[in-house]
């Protein structure tokens, strides 16, 4: 769908814009990731509100995570999460083997260290979505091999 | 692999919401980072330029439009094909001058401002949708057409409609080629 191209390009421009206006260094890098994550948070909150307007109430936490993995991910990224794991004590790991925002990049090791910049917004998206469904969480992401990535959500 | 042939209408709407909400978050962040409205406008335009240079390829691949022979044809395609494809709206086109190089796109519905009630206090000269101007400018430049694209009227600022003005600029290389021949 054509809309996807617009969002992908906007997201990439946002990432490059945020990093261009920052200087080098660990602290700056963290600040940029925070900026992107906060933007994602706002969007996630709004999006989940519009999305769950007419859906039934969720039974429990696992139900919410399944919703995020199936319906939410399908609407936003056109595919479902490939693997959801949990330790039943508040930690969930969502694995996407072909993450939409990373597929346009080389699949080797060349951009592995930069990949985390492109995941920050989505971490915020998940955190915002969960927050408006009543779950306060911390969401982090890691990439071991492009374009697969894992999002880890921790309650609290 | 099978794909669902028709999506529930809500999915398409939410997809568009994603872009609109992301844009809103971006503008909000920029307003926090820059004090002056001109800086925010400039930044949005620059960002739009970057997007436009890439979007035009996606557009040409999807739409298979033929070669255009006049500025008015180009503006019509921008309004009727490109805007429809990416934003789902069809602005109307008017020509502003007799030399046929100044056009206006009149948007009576603007999906980007769907969730915007009004501009924040103290931000009265913010061009909220300046990204669009940058996108059009970047896209045109990639097909070797220099143009100035600005907002002439903006509903968020109190005007009755939102109007984007496109002024095609004369290419300096044209004269060079003529001399060679």
From TrEMBL, chain A:
Cellular localization per UniProt: Endoplasmic reticulum; Golgi apparatus, cis-Golgi network
Main location: endoplasmic reticulum
GO CC annotations on file: cis-Golgi network; endoplasmic reticulum; trans-Golgi network; TRAPP complex
Single GO BP term: nervous system development
InterPro entries in the cross-refs: NO_sig/Golgi_transp_ligand-bd (IPR024096), TRAPP_component (IPR007194), TRAPPC6/Trs33 (IPR037992)
Keywords: Endoplasmic reticulum, Golgi apparatus, Neurogenesis
Keyword Endoplasmic reticulum: yes
Transmembrane segments: none
Family: Belongs to the TRAPP small subunits family. BET3 subfamily.
PANTHER family for the chain: TRAFFICKING PROTEIN PARTICLE COMPLEX SUBUNIT 6B
Assembly and binders: Homodimer. Part of a TRAPP complex. Heterodimer with TRAPPC3. The heterodimer TRAPPC6B-TRAPPC3 interacts with TRAPPC1 likely providing a core for TRAPP complex formation.
General function of this protein: Component of a transport protein particle (TRAPP) complex that may function in specific stages of inter-organelle traffic. Specifically involved in the early development of neural circuitry, likely by controlling the frequency and amplitude of intracellular calcium transients implicated in the regulation of neuron differentiation and survival.
Protein name (Swiss-Prot/TrEMBL): Trafficking protein particle complex subunit 6B
Source lineage: Eukaryota, Metazoa, Chordata, Craniata, Vertebrata
TrEMBL record, chain B:
Phylogenetic placement of the source organism: Eukaryota, Metazoa, Chordata, Craniata, Vertebrata
Designated name of the protein: Trafficking protein particle complex subunit
One Pfam match: TRAPP
Record note on quaternary structure: Homodimer. Component of the multisubunit TRAPP (transport protein particle) complex, which includes at least TRAPPC2, TRAPPC2L, TRAPPC3, TRAPPC3L, TRAPPC4, TRAPPC5, TRAPPC8, TRAPPC9, TRAPPC10, TRAPPC11 and TRAPPC12.
Transport among keywords: yes
One GO BP: Golgi vesicle transport
GO cellular component, one term: TRAPP complex
PANTHER family given in the database record: TRAFFICKING PROTEIN PARTICLE COMPLEX SUBUNIT 3 (PTHR13048)
Keywords assigned: Endoplasmic reticulum, ER-Golgi transport, Golgi apparatus, Lipoprotein, Palmitate, Transport
UniProt-annotated location(s): Endoplasmic reticulum; Golgi apparatus, cis-Golgi network
UniProt keyword annotation of Lipoprotein present: yes
Major localisation: endoplasmic reticulum
